[in-house]
Amino acid sequence: MARKLLPIGIQTLRKVRERNCYYVDKTGFAVRLAEEGTHYFLSRPRRFGKSLFLDTLEELFAGSRELFAGLQAHDRWDWSV
Hints:
By secondary structure, the chain is an all-alpha fold. Helices cover 42% and strands 0% of the residues. It has helices at 13-18, 27-36, 50-62, 72-76.
């Protein structure tokens, strides 16, 4: 079995998924933020995944369904909109 790579320096969900890197699924939080809130301030330390999380939100709103196969957001997001 091939070992997965660590996504060091990768800031886009598409690259993480296409290169089969390790990924901790936070898409459930992304769906919840989109459904429940209005304004958010994302404050996290450096190198803590802010860019990747924002890219994940962008891909959700762009309707990139194929990237979310097997992730929490796949069945919870309305892909028809």
